[in-house]
Amino acid sequence: MKEAVAYSIILGIYCLYFTLLEYFTGRTLGKILTRTRVVMHDGRPLEFTAAVYRTLFRSVLIGAFSFLPDRQPIGLHDRITKTRVIQA
Predict the structure, then answer these.
(1) Which helix (H) or strand (E) holds 13?
(2) Residue 36 dihedral angles phi and psi, to the nearest 5°
(3) What's residue 32's pLDDT?
(4) In angstroms, rounded to a whole number, what is the distance separating the alpha carbons of residues 74 and 58?
(5) What's the number of domains the chain is made of?
(6) DSSP string of 17-81, one letter each residue
(7) CB 1 within 8 A of CB 7
(8) Most buried of the four, 22, 34, 46, 68, by CB within 10 Å?
(9) Domain membership of residue 43 as a residue range
């Protein structure tokens, strides 16, 4: 039971971290280090719903594995939410 509570708290923090930082700044610590940011596919700032779905899909699709089906380096979480990671 304690493990389930701890896991839920960690998952909540994970979701808040990615969703809020990407929505408000377009960047997370990793994106700051790589000098990239996330935007909508047409270059507009990230929409809140896209940030939420992007975070959920990324956590469900296990990040790196979402790149396997396609030759383009665009993750499935980005294709589904119509977002792109670009150079900042």
Answers:
(1) helix 2-25
(2) -130, 170
(3) 95
(4) 12
(5) 1
(6) HHHHHHHHHS--HHHHHHTEEEEETTSPBPPHHHHHHHHHHHHHHTGGGGGTT-SSS--HHHHHH
(7) no
(8) 22
(9) 2-87
